[in-house]
Specification:
Layout (H helix, E strand, L loop, with lengths): L16 H15 L28 H10 L3 H16 L4 H14 L23 H15 L13 H10 L4
Length: about 170
C-alpha cells in the first residue's frame, strides 16, 4: 500500500488506503502527461480484461525475517491477521491471536494457560509461557528443515543466545 497507509500529516493512518493509493496513482499519471478521469472510483474488472500490472509478494520467510529484523509491529499484526483469515475466515485481532494459539496446539505445542491479544506482542495482556515460545519456534524450524528459520531477524539480540540454547538449534 502507498506509504503503508500512513496519513501524509504524519499522524495516524488514512481511512481508506486503497482509495488513497488510487488517488496517488492518478496524480502520478497526470504529472506524466496522461489524461485521466476526474474521479477515482472502485470497480471490478471484467473477466476478459488484460492485466496492466502485477505485484508478486516476497516469500513468507523473507517477510517474517524482515518483520523480526526491524521489529515491525504492523507487519506482525498483518501476519497474525492472515493466520486468522486462513483459520477462521476473519482478519481481526481476536481471530488472529486465537488462530495462532490454535495452530501451535495443532502442531503439538502445549498452550494451556497462554493468552494472546495481538500479533505484535505489545499487548500487556499477552501471556505466553517460555515453553510455548520455544516449542513453537523449535517445531517450526524442524518442520521446515531450516537451520536458520528467522534469518537475520534473530541474530543479534543478546536474549537470542539463551533462546538458541533453549531451542537446541542454530536458528
Amino acid at each position: 500500500w502507498v506509504d503503508q497507509g500512513q496519513d501524509p500529516t504524519g499522524y495516524g493512518f488514512v481511512p481508506d488506503p486503497a482509495a488513497t493509493a488510487a488517488q496517488t496513482f492518478r496524480a502520478a499519471l497526470q504529472r506524466n502527461g496522461l489524461k485521466v478521469r476526474p474521479q477515482v472510483a472502485r470497480a471490478v474488472a471484467p473477466p476478459e480484461a488484460d492485466d496492466v500490472a502485477s505485484v508478486s509478494s516476497a516469500p513468507l520467510g523473507e517477510i517474517v525475517e524482515r518483520t523480526l529484523e526491524v521489529s515491525d509491529n504492523q507487519a506482525a499484526e498483518v501476519l497474525a491477521r492472515h493466520v486468522g483469515l486462513a483459520e477462521r475466515q476473519e482478519g481481526s485481532f481476536r481471530a488472529g491471536a486465537a488462530s495462532v494459539l490454535d495452530v501451535l496446539e495443532r502442531l503439538g505445542v502445549p498452550v494451556a494457560g497462554d493468552q494472546l491479544y495481538d500479533g505484535s506482542g505489545l499487548s500487556r495482556r499477552n501471556r505466553l509461557r517460555e515453553d510455548t515460545l520455544a516449542g513453537g519456534t523449535r517445531d517450526a524450524a524442524r518442520e521446515r528443515g531450516q537451520q536458520n528459520l528467522f534469518g537475520r531477524g534473530l541474530q543479534y539480540p543478546a536474549s537470542v543466545v539463551g533462546l538458541r540454547r533453549l531451542l537446541g538449534c542454530h536458528c
